[in-house]
Amino acid sequence: MPLSREEVEHIAHLARLEFSEKELEAFTQELSQILDYMEKLSELDTSEVEPTYHALTVSNRFREDRVRPSFPPEEITQNAPQKEGSAFVVPKVIK
Amino acid sequence: MERLSLTEIRRQLQKGAFSAEEITKFYLSRIERLDPKVRAYLTVTPEEALAQAREADRLRAQGEDRPLLGVPVSVKDNICTRGLRTTCASKILEDFVPPYDATVVERLKAAGAVILGKTNLDEFAMGSSTENSAFFPTRNPWDLERVPGGSSGGSAAAVAAGLCAGSLGSDTGGSIRQPASFGGVVGFKPTYGRVSRYGLVAFASSLDQIGPLTRTVEDAALLLQVVGGPDPRDSTSYPEPQPHYLEVLAKPVSKAKFGLPREAWGEGLSEEVRSVLESVFKVVEDLGGELKEISLPHLAYALPAYYIIAPAEASSNLARYDGVKYGFRAEGGSLIEMYKKTRSQGFGREVKRRIMLGTYALSAGYYEAYYGKASQVRTLIKRDFERAFEEVDLILTPVSPTPAFKLGEKTQDPLQMYLSDVYTIPVNLAGLPALSLPAGYTGGGLPVGLQIIAPAFSESLLLAQAYALEKALALDLGPPSLED
Q1: What CATH code would you report for A5-41?
Q2: Is residue B59 part of a domain?
Q3: For tag attachment on chain A, is the N or C end more exposed, with fewer CB atoms within 10 Å?
Q4: Residue B234 is part of which domain span?
Q5: How many helices (H) and strands (E) does chain A have?
Q6: What is the pTM of this model?
Q7: Chain A contact set for B357 (CB, 8 A)
Q8: Number of domains in chain B
């Protein structure tokens, strides 16, 4: 099995997810199975191959740096679960 | 009337055979009566649709005409609609009301289209059966015990069932083409960059593309014409203006050379799909097409490469759902606790699975072995297609190895579900345009699609050949009877 339970817990933390004992067990098994399948890629020698990160060759597209209207703060914050004025409210970060 | 194509509806509206209000009411009443069986829609907007229809009628009375004036369509619910809930079929966005329209929606509206509602999908477009919707699964109108495919299953089912005449979906690894095949409708994924992604909720940004699901090839051309083309708000959109697809369709079709990749027609393809599709080869030849066996040697590596690249991009894109700016929030004592609880309660299982996979593939120590390697394999797949297109004009493959499968059949085995997209995924990795054309029915009466793949930005060639083939096949595409 390519993945240990501890690794799955670590990845979950990185991804800001948490799982019950049962879910951890299931995910360890499922993800290991999927990663086993990915091993197929190691059949290929890619040492001389450039990676493709994008389907088509794209380069930066520049535009004029002009002031344009943007969304009013009240529209942008209208979906916030908790807000104060035009600010998002989150649990206290600084002790 | 439920058999009318977009193009026919447009013609009838121009002739005054019926009004936009009448055709809109017709679809709304069909949705009310039949959608409880199919469940293609997450949100139906009768009042807004009728208002848009009356406005269209008013404009027409003043002598105006536009490409879709008064024509009712639906939109997949991962495409933002201003003031109208856009959920991505996820609990985390259940109450999200976008403050803006996606570019494609803006263009639909500018063309005069009437939007009937938003269609169901696999949560965040991750899945091949629409069973991963956090709200309910959609059913296949040809057999209600079977899945409509996914992730644009709601759009495909809505068109197949005559609950709209056309829909916009999105395709990251086959999410337009596979449900189109399962539903007996046309599904077209244009070249990456042909359609703006502004306002499409991001899944895997280097692969995502919006496209039409329609009853006919001509309709697909019409819808693409309206929504495609350059957009300054999406820097990956292709800067050149679109060709006039409908004018291309009006001309006689040229003789084309079709490649049949042996890797796609070998092992893994079900006999029932093979026999339907092989019967089409003869029709292709009758039209003057030449068939040629070709090779895409790295085809078998596309699926593992995709399931590294797409989840890697998804894990990064979905980091934005943190319970702060929009969407669902769970209570937690600290910020990090709030993040974890929000995301764990808000995302469904497949989405979490892919976030985990992607996070792992991008994590320190594994980045090169997984994401790096997969990106190199992507180059090999792209080159395979480039070489093939030196020999042939278009490539023909199946869309999916099987016809529509039963609900629940693959939900316990993610790898089996992933295999459903084995023929569509390579096309996204290479960024090419591809269309699923209804090709016939299995003995059990389930539709089967043929995938036609073209070189980048050769939509005109692809549409012209698909149009000729569609006419030669002359299939009866329902909709199936859903009345009691």
Answers
A1: 1.10.20
A2: yes
A3: C
A4: 6-257+403-437+444-473
A5: 3, 2
A6: 0.97
A7: 31, 34-35
A8: 1
